[in-house]
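Structure (tokenized):
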């Protein structure tokens, strides 16, 4: 099992923590990780784009002029795509972009992402994150003490003071142990997790 250092909010090492290999020491499956990221980005798409084809725009019921003898090119409708106010050729229509992964694939991809962060020494454990007040400056000081700038901060429980202290910091995102995903783990340079969050992750995914 991998051992990682545990830091306090001042950035000082206060102990070590043994990580469960069933979650943080699996064989990395890059294909599943890629599938999970693609699925998450695709599932965010609304798919509500829409433009009208020539069959849907109004007007154009009659032929604008006779077929021959006018000197003009032949035209069948004023709603054809080449006319102002005409329909759009191959217009986009609403569609569902959803990509589904089964539960085992999602769990395996998440474990692979967590394992990669541990192997790259980009997984930092803190003993706790507690603030008496909502103060962005204090949260920034903690991140500076840990020497991280772009980080996903994972907490074990919902602490409004921590969440609201972090929300104005660029490159910082807070999440709870049960809501982490592969995309966020890979997007941010470092994962900063509390001991309580690590315990929750191991309990859910081990």
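Design, position by position:
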């Amino acid at each position: 099992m991998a051992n990682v250092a545990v830091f306090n909010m001042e950035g000082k090492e206060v102990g070590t923590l043994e990580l469960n290999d069933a979650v943080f020491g699996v064989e990395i499956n890059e294909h599943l990780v890629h599938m999970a990221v693609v699925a998450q980005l695709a599932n965010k798409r609304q798919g509500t784009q829409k433009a009208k084809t020539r069959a849907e725009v109004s007007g154009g019921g009659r032929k604008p002029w006779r077929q021959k003898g006018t000197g003009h090119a032949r035209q069948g409708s004023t709603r054809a795509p080449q006319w102002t106010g005409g329909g759009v050729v191959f217009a986009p229509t609403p569609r569902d972009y959803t990509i589904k992964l089964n539960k085992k694939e999602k769990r395996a991809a998440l474990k692979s992402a967590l394992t990669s962060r541990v192997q790259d020494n980009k997984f930092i454990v803190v003993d706790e994150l507690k603030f008496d007040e909502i103060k962005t400056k204090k949260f920034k000081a903690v991140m500076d003490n840990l020497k991280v700038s772009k980080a996903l901060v994972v907490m074990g429980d919902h602490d409004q003071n921590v969440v609201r202290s972090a929300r104005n910091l660029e490159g910082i995102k807070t999440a709870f142990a049960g809501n982490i995903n592969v995309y966020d783990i890979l997007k941010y340079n470092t994962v900063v997790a509390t001991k309580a969050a690590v315990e929750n992750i191991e309990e859910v995914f081990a």
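Reviewer-requested clarification: The chain has seven helices and six strands. The mean pLDDT is 92.
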